[in-house]
């Protein structure tokens, strides 16, 4: 058997195993919420951020930093600190 034949056989075996796993039902097949998910605080209906100072934009980036520009700024970018 050549190297390419061996690679093809491994790929087909892996595909068959995945197909068999997908057709089985059970608790492992269901998606569950991860145990370490961080709860997200609800945003107030009026659009204000509770922790933001008055007069600041308050936009948050993915790492949790907050924009320090004035509220409603015309600049396209935010300044985070």
From TrEMBL:
Compositionally biased intervals (Basic and acidic residues): 1-15
Stretches with biased composition (Low complexity): 34-45
UniProt source species: Nocardioides albidus
Highest taxon listed in the record's lineage: Bacteria
Region annotated Disordered, chain positions: 1-81
Name of protein: Uncharacterized protein
